[in-house]
Amino acid sequence: MNWGHRDFKVSIDIIGGNLTAHLNAYSDRNFINNAYMAIPINANNSRWTDAGSTAQKLEVRITKDDQTLFCYYCIYYLTIKSTNATAVPRSQYRASWSYLPDGGEEVPLITLGNTA
């Protein structure tokens, strides 16, 4: 959930196999659909889609100046699907979400008893 209006990054390190990744968001302004319908299952209902294989890194940055991906007060959903063509489809990966510094974080934290 991006409740703090912060820029962030989604990274997927593919350790083995092939996979596709889909990212979508559900906003407090989307009252026509329920949150379950926002879970991305393919490119048709995703704001971002990418695919990769062993030793590749998939990455997307969601920043305030990107109106396609960023939204305020949103819940973001990430779906990762194995696309191996073997009888036992398995992929190994490491997914991470991390905040990115933006202009609003350059203001020092003011606490009682300390100067800024």
Structural commentary:
- The strands form two sheets. A three-stranded antiparallel beta sheet has the order 4-1-6, with no helix packed on it. Strands 3-2-5 form a three-stranded antiparallel beta sheet, with no helix packed on it.
- The protein is globular.
- With 116 residues, the chain is mainly β.
- It has strands spanning 8-16, 18-27, 48-53, 57-62, 74-82, 92-99.
- The model has no long low-confidence stretch (mean pLDDT 84).
- The protein has one domain.
The overall pLDDT average reads 84
Oligomer: single chain
Strand content: 35-45%
Q: Give the strand order of the largest sheet, numbering strands 1, 2, ... along the chain.
A: 4-1-6
Taken in chain order, the helices and strands follow as EEEEEE
Structural class: mainly beta
Distance between the amino and carboxyl termini: 30 Å
Short description:
The protein is an all-beta fold.
Q: How would the blueprint of this fold be written?
A:
Elements: E1 8-16, E2 18-27, E3 48-53, E4 57-62, E5 74-82, E6 92-99
Antiparallel strand pairs: 1-4, 1-6, 2-3, 2-5
Features:
single chain, 0% helix, mainly beta, 3-stranded antiparallel β-sheet
